[in-house]
Amino acid sequence: MTANTPMIVTFVVYIALMVLIGLFAYMRTNNLSDYILGGRSLGSFVTALSAGASDMSGWLLMGLPGAIYLSGLSEAWIAIGLIAGAYLNWLFVAGRLRVQTEHNGNALTLPDYFTHRFEDNSRVLRIFSALVILVFFTIYCASGVVAGARLFESTFGMSYQTALWAGAAATIAYTFIGGFLAVSWTDTVQATLMIFALILTPVVVMVATGGIDPTFAAIELQDATNFDMLKGATFVGVISLMAWGLGYFGQPHILARFMAADSVKSIPAARRISMTWMILCLGGAVAVGFFGIAYFSANPSVAGPVTENPERVFIELAKILFNPWIAGVLLSAILAAVMSTLSCQLLVCSSALTEDFYKAFIRKQASQKELVWVGRAMVMLIAIIAIMLAANPNNRVLGLVSYAWAGFGAAFGPVVILSLVWKQMTRNGALAGMIVGAVTVILWKNYLAHLGLYEIIPGFIFATLAILIFSKVGNGPSASMLKRFDEAEKEYRSA
Fold this sequence. Notes:
- By secondary structure, the protein is mainly alpha-helical.
- 76% of the residues lie in helices and 0% in strands.
- The chain has helices spanning 5-26, 32-37, 44-55, 59-71, 77-103, 110-117, 124-156, 160-208, 212-222, 235-242, 252-259, 267-298, 304-308, 313-321, 324-362, 368-390, 401-421, 427-447, 456-470, 479-494.
- The model has no long low-confidence stretch (mean pLDDT 84).
């Protein structure tokens, strides 16, 4: 038995379990609502962990620990911003969106919700929002495929091309078969695995370096500024890192979890569970990178791979400090993070193509069975495009994740928030907000990036202003729009 055998066995068992969950979900999938939103049947626990796992990709176990290992606690501002943004999203958006989507045509997707909420008979909102989803999420999916390939490549010594297909195949399989229920149930398993890995690993690293005091002393000896959260920071830099939290209000794969909850009454419990999970996971990821500084400064003979690529700090600590079987479980957590996010993105793209193009424009009378199979075909189509985009490991797809996050946050975030709290908002305001938000992000990224300000900030501000201004131009909301808004708000407040 080679050193890699336990890890291979662990990965195979884990992937097999995910596909079995997909098969079980397949038996519960009878119509398009089941495939896209699980029939709005998720309880608070599954809603909470599914929202968390769909949000946190391989970045949680590779990117964040690597950044902390390289630069110290000054990189932790992004985690603080994400926690604040996620909490506000649960508090102000989750419950209202669950109720409003049901009152507005029982909407299954974000474009569907916008169309019904603003009585957009021209369907221009549906088309534009679905296009935004497809463009940004195809890039997002490609980045997930690359991250999975990198994991298989570094863990098993595969060629990049082999690792590409190995990493993507399992995710495609259970998403294709089981749809939203499979994705949500597997997310719950994956979220549990991620929190286990991120709590256990920093504790074991700290024990290996002699306890709390020796660990902190070794980190300070390596570079005292590792403890300085303002090291090399500017006001614009800190604000830009924290502004990642603004992105939550416009992420379709996270908002879909709110829409799928079995009841608005499940949301408060889900919020508490999700935020506890998120704080522990982000804290664990920061601790892995931070304590890794002490471990590898004390053991320079094994620091080579981490020196070459700091994002390998979690992988190397797991392989060095744990029994190979336990290491296999811990490394499966990285696969879990990649798979959970990629599966959600594939499903959102599939639902945009099926519900917002195929059903809306091509086959309005399509049967539920036909729509489910079209949804499955769209999962395969988007997956193949993502794999093609990811085929060149040097195409910098991963660098576009922050671009896509900003694009969604600015194009959809202000529209979602104001559509839920301001009943005077109109179709013109919604369309202007989407266009201004998306265009601002693109122009800022390409022409004003040298200013150092994350493009989501101007995008969010200008989109909000556009909504407020253009909602006052032309006709106001119809009586039926106002009535639906008031009825949904009344139900939300009485919950």
